[in-house]
């Protein structure tokens, strides 16, 4: 009962007054009272902390937590759900033990034990006389429901700790004098601290504490198990080139793509068959379409994706674009080098066959403003319809309507004949360059390299630069005018090549950014934005325009 709900003054004997008014029955002298006595409930409010450990004195908690943190926890607003953090090892890095403040309805009891001193102590017994007194109510309690994590401190004099201390103190000489220590593969030693006999060893790993420690705890019963959709399968590791086992979630559609082989991989070490994931899906594919793709790779072992799709009927082309497992079932992809992003027949390695020089790839960007391409093209200024279909294609449709050029034929998009363009992007294989002036340098080279270079392939660097320069000169003329490119545009570059003035490229554009093997590249996709146009490197090549003497 609360004290201010009782009408009597403080010095009134409560029990006697109550007996007179209510006429409680009196207990006999030989028995205890049947009614408990009334007591005032003090108005003092207390807050308690359920300390997770033995307590010798209430002030001992100040060894693991500051008084200011305790005040901030209990004085915070009711809806803030404040937290009290205790640290058993002071400022050493580690996750603290967190307790949460909660509302409570408890009474704080003061228990006093009285024992007789002297000779008569044995008569009273060892327990003594206990009395309990209510000193106030407990409205807030901090409870700790999680155990402390294992605490591990690295050697403060270790190599890594010394380097970090030098960096924090900006010790210039110590940083310059630092050298990597030899590798030590001794990771454990006997524990010199014998306070806990169960801990026999301690770690020698020189791990440093993380900047932050998570506040999330694992549930008490974690009970982790793999979902039913996760099954163990063999997958191809592109980094090591070997098969390894891993768990795969069958509940989602796994991404499929051709196996990617870098140019610097061991010669002859190329995939000879698809992965097990593709094999398992081949039963659901159209066998006639797969055979059609195999026949195309028998005719020509290396294809660009858009040129391969151009050989298929419209219905088959849509099927290949819709289901991504068709191409990985018949070919792999080159990730770098002169055959970058080219699809290659299983078992065929273009790096050991000099006849594969005809399948090398060249590309450049006509929509970039460079010294060799000072065209001011801003698709943002076009109408919405032109934006949707592309600036170049909209311009070609306008020229076709005005009978300034023949219609665009998508099946000829991969062919460069020096007459008309059928695709905006300058991306060709050398075997598809049919312009007579350029084809003679491709098909009848004066000499070839003994090994396939990652930059120029089987061609000497100067000859490969000439071929790219000739294709670029004619391409840019047709791209701007939509008219056949005359041969005399290229005479200056040929003259420089014959005189040895044509500067080879320092690096090939195919090496600028590696390809993602799972990227699906259709006719409307884009190349890697970080690639460098070869136009900006051929600055010493002269272009002879019509009418120049």
Automatic annotation (TrEMBL):
Residues 208-364 form the Transcription factor IIIC subunit 5 HTH domain. It comes from the Eukaryota. This is General transcription factor 3C polypeptide 5 (Transcription factor C subunit 1). The keyword Nucleus applies. One of its GO terms (cellular component) is nucleus. Residues 48-152 form the Transcription factor IIIC subunit Tfc1/Sfc1 triple barrel domain. Keywords: DNA-binding, Nucleus, Transcription. The lineage of its organism: Eukaryota, Fungi, Dikarya, Basidiomycota, Agaricomycotina. The keyword Nucleus applies. GO terms for molecular function: RNA polymerase III type 1 promoter sequence-specific DNA binding; RNA polymerase III type 2 promoter sequence-specific DNA binding. It is found in: Nucleus. It comes from Kwoniella newhampshirensis. Residues 502-549 are annotated as: Disordered. Signal peptide: none annotated. It holds the Pfam family Tau95. One of its GO terms (biological process) is transcription initiation at RNA polymerase III promoter. Residues 505-526 have a biased composition (Acidic residues).
């Amino acid at each position: 009962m609360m004290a201010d709900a009782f009408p009597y003054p403080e010095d009134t004997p409560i029990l006697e007054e109550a007996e007179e008014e209510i006429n409680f029955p009196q207990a006999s002298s030989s028995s205890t009272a049947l009614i408990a006595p009334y007591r005032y409930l003090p108005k003092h409010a207390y807050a308690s902390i359920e300390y997770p450990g033995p307590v010798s004195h209430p002030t001992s908690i100040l060894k693991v937590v500051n008084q200011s943190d305790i005040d901030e926890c209990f004085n915070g607003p009711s809806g803030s759900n404040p937290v009290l953090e205790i640290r058993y090892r002071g400022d050493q890095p580690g996750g603290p033990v967190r307790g949460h403040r909660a509302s409570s309805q408890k009474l704080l009891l003061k228990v006093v034990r009285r024992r007789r001193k002297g000779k008569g102590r044995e008569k009273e017994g060892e327990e003594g006389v206990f009395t309990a007194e209510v000193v106030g109510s407990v409205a807030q309690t901090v409870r700790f429901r999680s155990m402390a994590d294992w605490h591990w401190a690295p050697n403060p004099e270790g190599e890594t700790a010394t380097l970090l201390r030098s960096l924090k103190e900006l010790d210039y000489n110590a940083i310059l004098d630092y050298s990597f220590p030899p590798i030590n593969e001794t990771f454990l030693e006997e524990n010199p601290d014998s306070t806990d006999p169960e801990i026999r060893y301690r770690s020698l790993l020189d791990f440093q504490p993380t900047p932050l420690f998570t506040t999330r705890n694992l549930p008490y019963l974690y009970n982790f198990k793999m979902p039913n959709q996760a099954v163990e399968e063999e997958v191809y590791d592109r980094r090591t080139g070997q098969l390894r086992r891993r768990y795969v979630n069958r509940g989602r559609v796994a991404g499929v793509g051709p196996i990617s082989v870098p140019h610097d991989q061991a010669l002859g070490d190329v995939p000879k068959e698809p992965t097990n994931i593709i094999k398992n899906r081949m039963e659901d594919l159209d066998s006639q379409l797969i055979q059609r793709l195999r026949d195309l790779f028998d005719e020509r072992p290396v294809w660009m994706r858009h040129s391969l799709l151009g050989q298929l009927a419209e219905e088959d082309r849509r099927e290949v674009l819709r289901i991504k497992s068709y191409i990985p079932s018949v070919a792999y992809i080159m990730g770098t080098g002169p055959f970058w992003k080219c699809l290659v027949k299983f078992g065929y390695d273009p790096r050991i066959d000099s006849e594969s020089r005809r399948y090398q790839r060249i590309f450049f960007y006509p929509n970039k403003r460079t010294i060799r391409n000072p065209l001011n093209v801003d698709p943002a200024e076009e109408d919405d319809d032109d934006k949707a279909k592309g600036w170049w294609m909209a311009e070609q449709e306008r020229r076709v309507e005005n009978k300034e050029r023949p219609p665009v034929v998508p099946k000829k998009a991969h062919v460069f004949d020096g007459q008309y363009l059928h695709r905006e992007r300058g991306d060709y294989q050398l075997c598809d360059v049919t312009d007579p002036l350029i084809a003679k340098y491709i098909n009848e080279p004066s000499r070839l390299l003994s090994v396939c270079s990652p930059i120029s392939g089987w061609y000497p660097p100067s000859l490969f630069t000439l071929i790219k320069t000739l294709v670029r000169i004619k391409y840019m003329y047709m791209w701007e005018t939509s008219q056949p490119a005359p041969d005399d545009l290229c005479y200056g570059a040929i003259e420089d090549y014959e005189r040895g003035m044509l500067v080879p490229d320092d690096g090939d554009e195919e090496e600028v950014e590696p390809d993602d093997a799972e990227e699906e590249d259709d006719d409307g996709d884009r190349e890697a934005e970080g690639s460098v146009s070869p136009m900006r490197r051929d600055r010493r090549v002269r272009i002879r325009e019509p009418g120049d003497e």
